[in-house]
Amino acid sequence: MLDESNNFVPLPREKVLITSPPRVTLALQTPNSYPGKEPLSIKCNDGKATITNQRLIYLPTSPTPQFKSLQAPLLSLQDTHVTAPFFGPNVWEGILIPTQGGGFAAHHHVVQMKLTFKDGGAFDFHSTFERIKEQVSHAAEIAIESGRANRNANGPIDVDLEQLPAYEEFGNGGHTQQSPPTLVQTSAPEIQRPTPISPDGITHSPPYRSEPSERAPKPAPTISEPFPPPNESPPGYEEVQSNSVANNLERRLRDQQ
Question: DSSP string of the chain?
């Protein structure tokens, strides 16, 4: 429902969590696997997307009689993800399950939705959607198990949103991570030896004992004694000696001639 200024009228207990930058493109079409008798194709080149704690809302900048707004419960959006192409802006897309009385034809059981963020913000939009959808889904499961809500095949699950946990943004006002406590290690206390007291009442200090060194000194290397001279001549010594004497004698004779 929109007011006179084409702004959406908040539902009871509804809170806005995030609003996209302007110039967001919307594309609604029937998937190729479910073309149907009359394929759906709706496009809007400029608008804003908003996520509340109950639904997703898209408002075009210039509404037309054919398309004025899109409103979808959070649990009716499935398989949502961000596509980041090499060239061009990021795209947030998913599958929309139309609800009864939502404005779609009865034969459109599945609709493919794409939001193109020309001015950025797709990843922040996606993370906010996933966090609030997880909380709503958890609350819906608890309500169904306890019998406080009924699952309607043609509509959203009726959940008391007052029972949802408080939504907290991450950032300056979000969760703060506490630093772990600092452990201070103290040294073990020294154990003092008792001072002996003699029978006469006089205190005597214990005798001084030199503590052994951690490493004993290594013994100095000993110089080995020279080997004694051999008692016998080496083999072939006499032959070499006789040849030397003969050569000397022959050289003297030649010198005398």
Answer: -B-TTSPBPPPTT--EEEE--S-EEEEEE--TT---SS--EEEESSEEEEEESSEEEEEESS--SS---EEEEGGGEEEEEEE--SSS-EEEEEEE-PPTTSSS-TT---EEEEEEETTS-HHHHHHHHHHHHHHHHHHHHHHHHTTSS---TTS-----GGGSPPP--SSTTS--PPPPPPPPPPPPPP-PPPPPB-TTS-B-PPPP-PPPPSSPPPPPPPPPPPPPPPSSPPTTHHHHHHHHHHHHHHHHHHHH-
